[in-house]
Design brief:
Length: about 100
Amino acid sequence: MIVTTTNKVQDKEILEYKGIVFGEVITGINILKDIGAGIRNFFGGRSGGYEKELLAARTEALKEMEERAKDMGANAIVGVKMDYEVLGADNGMLMVTCSGTAVVI
């Protein structure tokens, strides 16, 4: 499955538009990662725990979107966009969403 942020795939013709597909992941950030991030925020540096959580959520959202496109009979997704939100009363949840257009090339 080709997944791209562009509106077309180089050297390929879009034969059919199947529709818009989405992938969504909402994940909790645990207290240990919050403590580690707070320390790094105070002293400076990168938060490896948060970065790993974000990477995993993004990967899962893309995988979910690909599966939905496959179920529609598509073999590519064009125009992909990603969005990130922090949710929950204590901002303890991370939401990653992606969307694109499922197509046949």
